[in-house]
Amino acid sequence: MVFAHGFGCDQNMWRYVAPAFEDEYRVIVFDHVGAGGSDLSAYDRAKYSSLDGYASDILELCRELELRDVIFVGHSVSAMMGILAAVAEPDRFQRLVLVGPSPRYLDDEPYVGGFGREDIDGLLESLDSNYLGWSGAMAPAIMGNPDRPELGEELTNSFCRTDPTIAKHFARVTFLSDNRADLGRVDVPTLVLQAREDVIAPLEVGEYVERALPQGQLVVLDATGHCPNLSAPEQTIAAIKAFLPAA
Amino acid sequence: MTTKRTGNDASQRERPVPLDESAEELYEDAPVGYLSTAPDGTILRCNRTFLALSGYDAVELVGVRRFYDLLPPGAKIYYETHYAPLLEMQQEVREIALEIIRADGQRVPVLVNAQLKRGADGSPALIRITVLDATDRRRYERELLRARADAESRAAAASALQHINEGVVLVDDDGKIVVLNRAAVRLFDLSNEDVAGAQLATIVRGWAAIAPRIPVVSAGETVNSVVVPLAVEGDTRWVAASGELAPDGIVYTLRDVTAERRLEDFRDDIVAIVSHELRTPLAGVYGAAQTLATRGVDLSDDARHGLVDMIVEQSGRLSRILDEILMTQRLDGGDLQLESESFGVLSSVLRVIEGSHDWRNARPVRVLESEDVVAVGDPVLFEQALVNLLDNAMKYSPAEGEIRVRVGRHRSSARVTIADDGPGVAAENQERIFEKFFRVDPAQITGVSGTGLGLYITREVARRMQGRVGLLAADKGATFFVDLPAAR
Q1: Alpha-carbon span B464 to B348, nearest angstrom
Q2: How many Cβ contacts (< 8 angstroms) between chains A and B?
Q3: For chain A, what percent of residues have pLDDT higher than 90?
Q4: Which pTM was predicted?
Q5: Which chain A positions have a beta carbon within 8 Å of B95's beta carbon?
Q6: Options 2.60.120.40, 2.30.40.10, 3.10.20.880, 3.30.565.10; which CATH number does B339-485 get?
């Protein structure tokens, strides 16, 4: 079972859910390049300027660890990365679990994604205000402390710590992506887990995803917010277990 | 709130608190907004400070709205992707910058701290939030962000400057270098790129001579650059230069136009050669041919032979001049292919001497005691170099003079020396005679003519075979030498 975190934080997003599967499955959690403890120098702007770059990382991880019959659990934007990976190598995946997926965040008549272009700009501004740190390349030059990289670190909110330039790029790639056409090409049984109320992935979007998937199944959790894996872990675990074939 | 104070009289009194400072008052009127919400964000309680900040009445918030509902969409995404998960994972978040939409629609930047309180069973029970009006702070941060964007764009501009193919130098009012890009480093032949702060005139010696000649205009005015000769390490570079006044100095733009300039010079010299050097033989050929054509039948056999000989000789001279020009062009254009083989230098020398007997200005050549040295190079081009040196020696020799040639070794080279009894070479010309188009006597007062290319070709050819040409003696006649690497 491979758990992939979404935009914002890192693999800690799975801390209340992943352990519940460790008895029955080989559980793998990881940080996307650019997030958490990943090697920031591996961040290649061109590669990660579309979700395909992240999807190819997931496949690389599967190959490297020689994983077969993968149950892929992707939260938020990672759900679409899982879709792309499963389109590329359908035989590698046995099940997909998409938590709060959205194939398109922007409204696009008649499709309702929930956001307008200006909202994404608002997000980028929020990112900016919360990362007053200078971008990695500029900080040493401007602050004149090239030998003290820790000056830019040690943030309180460490689980969501990323390089600000990467965070903004990832935000753009995430919220401007459009993977609606890919949904129909996935021939893997897929669970769509959706909170009752989620501004980022509203219920209509969850229903859209279920309809578009050849083998999709929607389960609405009695939870609010975009992270039921944190706010309602028991429900999330139960829904996933119910979906997986008996071991 | 009480404060203890120790006085000299040792009496310790509690200081009276002048206002109501009950816990309730402290909560309601604290210098920070307080909110308590249910785990789903529904506002359960808030203080007066928060109400003032948000512009709402308590009845519009408590039990009705969630904290989250007060955020604009962009901040909502941030809330869902950062704030909420962090709170779940760490039980607290600190100093999250958000915006709140006030009741009147105005946005207020705020800094938010929050704590998640769990119930006895460990499930989330309550969230306590402090909300601090950060309007001024945000303004300050925007300034910082702007400064960062500014600094980044400046850094990008500085980096672009380094990649421009024209030299750019910013010099302050005291003549000190502020910025000097890589093209300028190359142009000035500087060994060190780190020259900021140095006097431009000190590190570039030729600068003082050209600076006054460079036009400097106010920003935005058009300026025509002037081409000035810049002396660098034994060489002259031609630089198209212009300057523009900057707020704190002058920005000079410099372009190396030496190659263009050389091409121009070459064209000028070619024109000079064509007009001077080609004219005489051409006139000879034309005159002789015309005489033969119009009055050929009336002339004696001797006179006719004389005219034909003149045509042969003068057209041969024309042909040699053209060969020299073509050879120079190939040398300068870099498309001259050189062989590299071992050959006996003495036999080359003897062959060239043998061929010189029927030159018009032939003088006797004596070969001094010599050793046949095997050299490595291109034998055909080497013989061409010898022809030029021998021709030069004969041109300057008096009619009764003789040329003395010797072949031998000099260190690891094969050396040929060619000495004549001519007037020698004046000290000031000893370097320059090998320059392209240099002629000792351009007005041909001495009657010695030439293209000024022979010695240049000889030097270039020798150089390309890792050899050398030079002048050994120049006071009583001239003694030239040419060295080629000896075979091992």
Answers
A1: 18
A2: 116
A3: 60
A4: 0.57
A5: 156
A6: 3.30.565.10
